[in-house]
Amino acid sequence: MNKNIFTATLVSLNLCRMVDNGLWKNKLDTRPLGWYFDRDNLLNNINRCGRDLVECRWDYIVIEEKFEGLGYPVVEDSEYWLEFDDDINNWSPCSKPSEVEGTICWSC
Questions:
Q1: How many CA atoms lie within 13 A of 19 on its CB side?
Q2: Count of other CB atoms within 10 angstroms of residue 91
Q3: pTM given for the model
Q4: Strand (E) positions, the chain?
Q5: How far apart are CA 49 and CA 22, in angstroms?
Q6: Which among 24, 49, 65, 70 could disulfide-bond with 78, CB atoms 3.0 to 4.6 Å apart, if both were Cys?
Q7: 8-state DSSP, 39
Q8: Does residue 43 contact residue 27 with C-beta atoms inside 8 Å?
Q9: How many CB atoms lie within 10 A of CB 2?
Q10: 84-93, pLDDT tens digit by residue?
């Protein structure tokens, strides 16, 4: 019997880097945050950490549902997106950013 695994990955769409011609260009960057067997436990820990996870660079957190074992693909419907909300000083649900439509498997 396969178990569900929930992975969390920090995502930034706005990191800038200098390219060869001396111009700045936006760049996508990610960092694995962790994984849990229970989605509610994962969300509680994200909310407990709040602003500490922003680090002045991360725009989003994507949570993906996967299954234990090899070769189990992640489907786009299994993603749950969060963005930092300055009004509540914590992460809140949001839509998947249009800049990354069609991209899956964030924690790989």
A1: 7
A2: 21
A3: 0.80
A4: 4-18, 24-36, 60-67, 79-85, 90-94
A5: 37
A6: 65
A7: H
A8: no
A9: 9
A10: 898 988 999 9
